[in-house]
Amino acid sequence: MISESLKKFARTIGQNEKISEVIVGVSSTMVILETQKAGTAMHYQKTWEGNIRPGSCNLQTGNYRDFKTDTTIKNIKIHTDEKNQIWKGKYLCELTEQLGSHDSLNSSLALAGINALCMKLNEGFENINFIEELEIQPDMVCGIIGYFSPVMEKLKKYSRKVYIFELIDHPDVLPISCEPELLPECDIIIATGTTIVNDTFDDIDKLVKTGQKFILAGPTTPLSTIPFLNTHVTELAGSIITDVESVRNGMINGDSGRKLRKYMDKRIIRLNRNMSL
After folding, report:
1. Secondary structure, 3-state, the chain
2. Cα 65 to the chain's mean position, in Å?
């Protein structure tokens, strides 16, 4: 299971790391280590007023609403204070053991902490936007798990067919129940890193065949090859935080992921798949 691989990775690499602060934002969590390395991860909590979370299909397709209300800010502070009382000053490994737990916020915070830990390794990241370097042929079939608007535009333009799978109900997407039938025929599979948070990654990975390109993408994606060596992932396309304080302040003030991207740089790590799984 990927959650177990990631927890083992954290125990090995981050055994002496301590948490300086945790933040629960409107659509993501953030963990800042005492070394000032930081990471974020999407959470699947509904917004604090019961609406569908920002970052889902409704936002990406242009039906954007302003979630930055007084109630949202107040509840961000309440949840952040609550989680800081539990985790501030603790060893990171205590938090990362919460990955895959029933507490969705703790699970998201655990992955954010692992993403902060990946910044310590700096595993030869390539400073590339994976969308720009995708090599798509006209006869290719592509599958996307999660609603990546910029990716879909390119895939639809250059490939023969694009399947889009999402957990939420939306007229432009297929339910994840269609994945076992359709993913095996795809040449390229792109999944959001939040599949780790919602425990669907392992089910997807089992459907991937050797020879398919399998990209795990988005700011939630851990940028280390080590936990993914026994998976079918061929590329990790994530982000590193370049301005920790600006991301921290933005999240506290209710900014969603799109507004925070200017404080992050996109990176790619490629896995060597010459060896058999």
Report:
1. CHHHHHHHHHHHHCCCCEEEEEEECCCEEEEEECCCCEEEEECCCCCCCCCCCCCCHHHHCCCCCCCCCHHHHHHHHHHHHHHHHHHCCCEHHHHHCCCCCCCHHHHHHHHHHHHHHHHHHCCCCECCCHHHHCCCCCCCEEEEECCCHHHHHHHHHHCCEEEEEECCCCCCCEEHHHHHHHHHHCCEEEEECHHHHCCCHHHHHHHCCCCCEEEEECCCCCCCCHHHCCCCCCEEEEEEECCHHHHHHHHHCCCCHHHHHHHEEEEEEECCCCCCC
2. 22
Lowest mean pLDDT among 4-18, 67-81, 242-256: 67-81
Please tell me the distance from the alpha carbon of residue 109 to that of residue 24, in angstroms, as a whole number: 8
Examine residue 99 and state whether it is found in any structural domain, yes or no. Answer: yes
- Domain boundary pick from 75, 93, 121: 121
Report residue 139 as tokens: 């006869």
Overall average pLDDT of the 81-103 stretch: 94
165 and 52 in one domain? no
Same-domain pairing of 150 and 230: yes
- CA triplet 78, 219, 67: central angle to 5 degrees? 40
Give the rounded distance of the alpha carbon of 138 from its chain centre: 29
Domains of the chain: total: 2
The pTM of this model reads 0.88
Least reliable range by pLDDT among 56-70, 118-132, 145-159: 56-70
212 closest CA partner among 194, 190, 230: 190
Structural domain containing residue 210: 130-242+262-270
The angle subtended at Cα 204 by Cα 202 and Cα 210, nearest 5°, is 100
Domain boundary among 121, 152, 180: 121
pLDDT, mean over the chain: 86
